[in-house]
Each structure stands twice: as structure tokens, then as C-alpha cells.
Design goal:
seven-stranded mixed beta sheet; eight-stranded antiparallel beta sheet; 695 residues; elongated; alpha+beta; Elongation Factor Tu (Ef-tu), domain 3; 5 domains; Rossmann fold
Length: 695
């Protein structure tokens, strides 16, 4: 059945991991009639967490989608993961939401870093937020503590529109401050209206005054009326609340219990009556593909079609599913669109609406709706799809930085290509995965947000693609160079029954500035080495560079000068000079003070103020060099240079030092000399590996 834009609501259910988001989503689906029984995370029946890895761990590993109807409106629920390892998927999915329901826990100091990041993303998107204090039936539930977290940790302005009736075992309903009535939870999830309990009358009146005061502040005339009369009409209060929500003036706070299914109908009423439809959200800003200038596209069905693909789901059997939001216009099945990022046409087949692990086919999708399409040939998450006649390009996805890396090795011989292909497919689905082959160590390196992230990826590899792998700490890609200059002769003379082999070279090696690579200088005069053999000399040296000299690591930043030599008119050959040059090069290196170089990483670490001393002390213990500290609200950003060998497993250590509130980005910066005592250890390990291989 066709839907009007005004009837569309895309509700992001956000908050930190373990806070009860998915349980709230399951309760909404049940109350809205989309499911016949309330799904449960605990028993594995949730409509959102259905992947085997999610069921086993009892947590959301990716964004889930489902929808229900309420008062002739279509509510699409976007259940965003809240654990740090999987947060990026949720941050990207939030751009398709019209409102966020921020799930809060009723205990002191419950809000964690994940909640802060999701809150910041909502602010960045100017996304209206509604707070829902869940678990009010739990022991020691404290409604006021959740409000304190919103103001102190998230720096929002919480304004209750409900008060709880009872708490813990005695929690049975809510007081609706807009209608000044009590709503008592019923076994089927509905709410029965009653008079406000006498012992809560005074608290309800005081809370309603605060609500009216906050709502009145949206309009000068209302402020004046409220100050004069101390009251707003029901119509004025409703209109002021709509304005406050749309303009993110404050956070209306609801409460309830997802497991007891208390407080769900009034929350749905508010989402339908007071939060914006896609048509009431600001126009989308992008880039005019033809001119390169900024461009806006109004959220209207009559505007040219455009959509942003914000998620990809890959299944080895059904193929790739692209999940998108229609930003403007309408999209019909069996139509053609332009992918502006790839400059390619895509054929849209059947349009789908996601219903948990299933999909339902629809004829068309209108502005604001979230849908999916299978088997687009070039499209990836972050791409813009548009009408070919009116192309516009929207900003891509939230950037991320890998925090942990593992070398990945197939358990079965010959499975390497299969592993790489499967990982590429998983990386298409999860753009926080990074796959590369280290050119020096030849290892396949898989990087991700955290250890749990990588472990889940390995489980998916086995389940979806049938390949088993082993995780190992990646080898540090050391390099070798020299600190001094030296000369040496490289000579090859072999006499056999037939033709012999003769090559004679005199070489000088000297260091180059860091990062220069390799330089070959030909200083031969008088034809002592014929011109046709000079390239063979250079080739012999170049082929020796990757083999190393001290510990088998690539030799860099070296100049080699060929300044003398001799040849034999019959026995000299390219091969002879190649071998002679390699011998001379290694002899010269031994006298040129060879050293090992280690990679140095640039880190930016955001930490709470109270953790800064611990983190800086830890960096010093890792041979790090702190470059500076930049203050931010409530936190500090530490800039430092640290050897790669010291931060291979930095992510869990930082989480431990900062109670999970620290975050960092890391990238390669430069190479530096490895201290002698550590170099000895690396060289010894290399010798032991070589000896083991020979045996």
C-alpha cells in the first residue's frame, strides 16, 4: 500500500551496548502488531539479532531493520549496535533516521564512551532525540540518575514528559505530563488510563511546570503568556513541543520497561505526533556533479530521485544487498539509476523492505523510506544513486581508523586465495575491515576496530564461506640500512672444463637520507667493465636488497657506486657480473656499520582528563615521544610518536586505562634506528628462524 512522506518515520534506536536497545525494538514490534510475540535477546528470538554470532553473544554486531504501523504511520526501526567494535555501522545508519530514541539506563554513571559518540553523531546530523529510560523494573532503578547522565555526560538538556509510577518490582506504569493522567501497563502491552496516584500529584505538577517552561522557550510570545498566566493551553503545549523536538531544543524523556512491555504505546504516540517526517527535515546538501558546486535537494517526492547507500549486506547464497534511503523523489522497481561515485548505470530489480532477517517486495519507495535492492554490480556503501538527468553526490560514510591488526593464515594448505576472496566480500559488507598484504613480510594483514571485531570476522569466514584461519601477531616490517661508508671488491672466477665465469667489481656503499630508497651510480671509465655488463651489476645489487644482510629485512637508503673492475674477453657474462656485484655489495655492507630500522607510528589519542597522566606514562614506557596535548571539552587529545612494535595490541590496553572511554587513530609516520639491545634480539630471532627452516 503506497505511503505518504508525512506518514514516514525512521526511528534510530541508539545507545551504548547492553543498554536494552534491541529489547525496546522487539517490544515496539510486538505492540505495533508486526510480530505475534515479543522477541527476546536472551533466548535468541529477537527480530533484530538473528545472525548466529549475535545469538551466541547476545549482542548486536550490525544494524538491524524492521518496521511496524502505528496510527496509519509507517515506523521503520533502525537498531544500531552500541558496542565500540561495531559502532561505525550504527553511526553510518543514523544518517537515514528522522529521529533517534536514545535508550538510557536508570543508574548513576551508566553512560559510556559509546553513548557519547552516538550522541555527538546525532548532534552532527541535527537529529531530534527522544530519551527512553528503560529497565525501570530492575532493582535499584533510578529515573533521576538517567536524567543526570544526559545533562552531565552527554551535555544535553533532559526534560521529562513522563514520570515513573513505582520502580523495580513495584514499577507498573507512567504519568503522562502532557495529558496529566496515569497510564498503567497491561499484560498485552497496552496502557490503561487512571487518575494520578495521590502521593505523586505534587511531583507531577512540578514536573509539568518544568515541561511547560521548557516548551514555552521555543517562542517569545509563549514565554510572555506563560510568565503572566503560568499555563499553556493543550494546543499551545503540543505545538511548542513539536517545535522543540524538531529544533533539538531539549530531549523529551520517557520511561518504561521493554521486557515488561510498559510505556511503549505513549512512546509510539509521541513519535508519530511530535517528531518530524522526512519532508520536515532540512534539505540534503551534496555536490552538483556537473558543476562541482554545492547543491541542495529538497526532501520531496516531486524532486528528482536521489538516494544514499549506507550499508551493504553480503550473503554467499543470495549475493549482495545494498541498503539505502531515498533522499528525494521516488524509486520504482525495474528502473535504471546512475551511481555517481562510479559513473556507471545500475539496473534496479525488485525493491525490498527489510523485515529482520527477511525482506518483503514493494513496488516503489518514496522520499525518506529505507529500502534495499539486490545484486547491484558496482555499488558500494557510501555511494550515491540518482536520476541520470539530475545527478547529485552526497558525502560518503563516517571515516574510521583500524585499531588492531592480525596476520591471518589459512589452516588448510591451498586455501589462501579462497580466504582472500571471502575477506574481500566481508570487507564490502563491513568497511571498518581493512585487508592488505604486507609487501615485505608477505603476510595477509587483517585490521579492524578491536579484537572482538576480528574474532567475529573469523567466525563469519568459517560459517559463511567454509574457510578456517589462524590469527597471529603481525611481524613488524623492520628495514636495514647503514650508518657509514665502505669499499669492497666483488669477484667471481670459475674455471671448468668448458667456458668459465668471470666478473670483477669494485663497489663503494654509503648512506642516503631516510626515505631516499636506493641509488646506483656508474663511475666506470676506460671500459674496464664493458657497457653491456653494467645493468647486470645494478640488477645483482637490487636483487640483494630485499634479502637483507643482518636479519633478512629489506635494505633501504643506500647509495652504491661502481668505480672499478675488470673482465675476461671469453668468460665474462651478465650472470657472472650479477653474482660478483652481489658478493661485493654484501662484503661492503659488513664494514659500513649496518643497522636495523623500525617503523614509527603517529598516534592521536582522545582520553578523559582524569586518565591523561596514566596514558602519557604508559606511552613513555613504550618508548613513545609525546608531541603535544590539545584540550577538548571534557577530554584531551594526545599526539605522540611510538614504535610499531610497542603498539601492536594498544587497543585493549587503552580501554583498560580509560575505563573504555579512550579512543585513538594510528598511521605510519617514518622509520628510525632500532636501539642496539633490541636489534640484537631481532637478529637472533631471525637467525633462529633461518636455522629452523634449514632443518
Amino acid at each position: 500500500m503506497p505511503i505518504e512522506v508525512s506518514q514516514v518515520r525512521n526511528i534510530g534506536i541508539i545507545g551504548q551496548g547492553g543498554g536494552g536497545k534491541t529489547s525496546l525494538g522487539d517490544a515496539i514490534l510486538f505492540v505495533g502488531g508486526a510480530t505475534t510475540r515479543r522477541g527476546s535477546v536472551d533466548d535468541g528470538s529477537s527480530a533484530f539479532d538473528f545472525e548466529p554470532e549475535e545469538v551466541r553473544r547476545k549482542l548486536s554486531l550490525g544494524t538491524g531493520f524492521h518496521h511496524t504501523a502505528w496510527k496509519k504511520h509507517q515506523i521503520t526501526l533502525v537498531d544500531a549496535p552500541g558496542y565500540i567494535n561495531f559502532l561505525t555501522d550504527g553511526l553510518n545508519s543514523m544518517r537515514a533516521c528522522t529521529t533517534a530514541v536514545f535508550v538510557l539506563e536508570p543508574s548513576v554513571g551508566a553512560a559510556k564512551v559509546e553513548a557519547e559518540r552516538l550522541w555527538s553523531r546525532a548532534e552532527q546530523l541535527a537529529l531530534p532525540c527522544v530519551g527512553f529510560v528503560t529497565k525501570m523494573d530492575r532493582e535499584n532503578a533510578d529515573f533521576e540518575a538517567a536524567l543526570k547522565d544526559v545533562s552531565d555526560v552527554l551535555r544535553g538538556k533532559p526534560v521529562p514528559v513522563q514520570l515513573p509510577i513505582g520502580s523495580a518490582e513495584s514499577f507498573r506504569g507512567v504519568i503522562d505530563l502532557i495529558g496529566m493522567r496515569a497510564l498503567i501497563g497491561q499484560p498485552d502491552g497496552s496502557m490503561k488510563e487512571e487518575a494520578i496516584p495521590a502521593d505523586l500529584n505534587d511531583a507531577a505538577k512540578a514536573a509539568r511546570e518544568r515541561l511547560m517552561e521548557a516548551a514555552a522557550e521555543t517562542d517569545d510570545a509563549l514565554v510572555e503568556q506563560y510568565l503572566e498566566s503560568g499555563e499553556l493551553t493543550a494546543e499551545q503545549l503540543a505545538q511548542a513541543l513539536r517545535t522543540a523536538v524538531r529544533e533539538c531544543r531539549f530531549v523529551p524523556i520517557f520511561c518504561g520497561s521493554a521486557t515488561k512491555i510498559i510505556g511503549i504505546p505513549p512512546l509510539l504516540d509521541f513519535l508519530v505526533d511530535f517528531t518530524p517526517s522526512p519532508a520536515e527535515r532540512p534539505a540534503a546538501v551534496g555536490e552538483d556533479v556537473k558543476t562541482g558546486e554545492p547543491a541542495e535537494r529538497p526532501p520531496s517526492p516531486s524532486a528528482p530521485f536521489s538516494a544514499i547507500v549506507f550499508k551493504t549486506v553480503v550473503d554467499p547464497f543470495s549475493g549482495k544487498l545494498s541498503v539505502f534511503q531515498v533522499v528525494s523523489g521516488e524509486l520504482h522497481g525495474d528502473s535504471a539509476v546512475l551511481n555517481v561515485n562510479k559513473d556507471s548505470k545500475e539496473r534496479i530489480g525488485h525493491l525490498l523492505r527489510i523485515e529482520g532477517k527477511k525482506q518483503a517486495q514493494v513496488e516503489k519507495l518514496t522520499t525518506g523510506e529505507i529500502g534495499a535492492v539486490a545484486k547491484l554490480k558496482d555499488t558500494e556503501a557510501g555511494d550515491t544513486l540518482t536520476d541520470e538527468k539530475a545527478p547529485i553526490k552526497y558525502p560518503g560514510l563516517v571515516p574510521f581508523s583500524a585499531a588492531i591488526s592480525f596476520a591471518i593464515e589459512p589452516k588448510a594448505k591451498g586455501d589462501e586465495e579462497k580466504v582472500i576472496q571471502a575477506l574481500h566480500k566481508l570487507a564490502e559488507e563491513d568497511q571498518t575491515l581493512k585487508l592488505e598484504r604486507d609487501p615485505q613480510t608477505k603476510e595477509i594483514i587483517l585490521s579492524g576496530v578491536g579484537q572482538l571485531h576480528i574474532e567475529v570476522t573469523v567466525e563469519k569466514l568459517k560459517r559463511k564461506f567454509g574457510v578456517d584461519v589462524e590469527l597471529k601477531a603481525p611481524k613488524v616490517p623492520y628495514k636495514e640500512t647503514i650508518k657509514g661508508s665502505a669499499k669492497a671488491q666483488g669477484r667471481l672466477k670459475k674455471q671448468t672444463g668448458g667456458r668459465g665465469q668471470f666478473g670483477d667489481t669494485y663497489l663503494e656503499v654509503s648512506p642516503l637520507p631516510r626515505g631516499s630508497g636506493f641509488e646506483f651510480v656508474d663511475n666506470i671509465v676506460g671500459g674496464v667493465i664493458p657497457r653491456q655488463f653494467i645493468p647486470a651489476v645494478e640488477k645483482g645489487i637490487r636483487e640483494a636488497l630485499p634479502e637483507g644482510f643482518l636479519a633478512g629485512y629489506e635494505i633501504v637508503d643506500v647509495r652504491v657506486r661502481l668505480y672499478d673492475g675488470s673482465h675476461h674477453s671469453v668468460d665474462s657474462s651478465e650472470m657472472a657480473f650479477k653474482i660478483a656485484a652481489s658478493i661485493g655489495f654484501k662484503t661492503a655492507l659488513s664494514n659500513a656499520k649496518p643497522i636495523l630500522l623500525e617503523p614509527i607510528m603517529a598516534l592521536e589519542i582522545a582520553v578523559p582528563d582524569e586518565s591523561m597522566g596514566d596514558v602519557i606514562g604508559d606511552l613513555n614506557s613504550r618508548r613513545g615521544k609525546v608531541l603535544g596535548v590539545d584540550p577538548k571539552v571534557g577530554s584531551q587529545v594526545i599526539r605522540a610518536l611510538v614504535p610499531m612494535a610497542e603498539v601492536l595490541r594498544y587497543s585493549p590496553d587503552l580501554r583498560s586505562m580509560t575505563s573504555g572511554r579512550g579512543a585513538f587513530t594510528m598511521e605510519f609516520d617514518h622509520y628510525e634506528e632500532l636501539p642496539a639491545h633490541l636489534a640484537e634480539k631481532v637478529i637472533k630471532e631471525a637467525e633462529e628462524r633461518k636455522a629452523a627452516q634449514q632443518h
